[in-house]
């Protein structure tokens, strides 16, 4: 199982996807952590790699695949207040693997402008202040693509959506085409393609409407289910989600603790540092035209103090469902819970 997919399933225990619609990017976190892993090889990094079952080669291959996709913009950087201490061979490694040269950390505005530029202004602010911050390792991803088969806006109508906390009214899109579709006793699954993109949308609609069944639906069995081309009526609401996460507690719950005490980066960044916070902001919008999504993950560091038949199918997403963006390797790039 891909590292990203393992992580996407595990975090449903620690990130609340069922109180409100939430968008999380496993890929964005792992891409940022790929930089951190290159900063040191001490026991804190070994613990991180072990606890997250982090496969460095797999992540590099996945990232290279993403970079080749015309619908995706992927960027990374290191902002460091003591740029003169960074080792030249480490700079060369960053340029080769991540295509950036570290920059001197000057201001919060500098970091925020970098984020805004690389996410087409979808994520404009990641840090309020750089007080007490020595280094920021950062990853940004932006995706925008049109559906291969678009929804007709004339068929979009107001319909009720039965959320966990009650009903609401949504703008429900309608599509009746041959789609890649599958089902079992627990879920219905549909996959939609985009024009000029290797990424695809995977929609997982649990039959049972409880938070427990909802979280359980995000599993490898459903991610890998065989989908057949079926004449399918799909009703899917338009939605837009923006989310913020401080992932320190999530990582600690997954067994990662040592990086928050000490990471020996003396041979790369020139200091013994500790991770202060790991934060992520995300954006996703789905409408009749297609999908746009963005994520930024920032690792803030300070100096150490230490998922056939001929019968037409219907998939009516009028209750909570998962909307995933997966790439050609099958890895979860974005995982969104649509709850209201």
From TrEMBL:
Pfam families: Serpin. GO terms for molecular function: serine-type endopeptidase inhibitor activity. Gene3D superfamilies: Alpha-1-antitrypsin, domain 1, Antithrombin, subunit I, domain 2. InterPro entries: Serpin_dom, Serpin_fam, Serpin_sf, Serpin_sf_1, Serpin_sf_2. GO terms for cellular component: extracellular space. Residues 9-335 form the Serpin domain. PANTHER family: GH10112P-RELATED, SERINE PROTEASE INHIBITOR, SERPIN. Belongs to the serpin family. This is Serpin 1. It comes from Hexamita inflata.
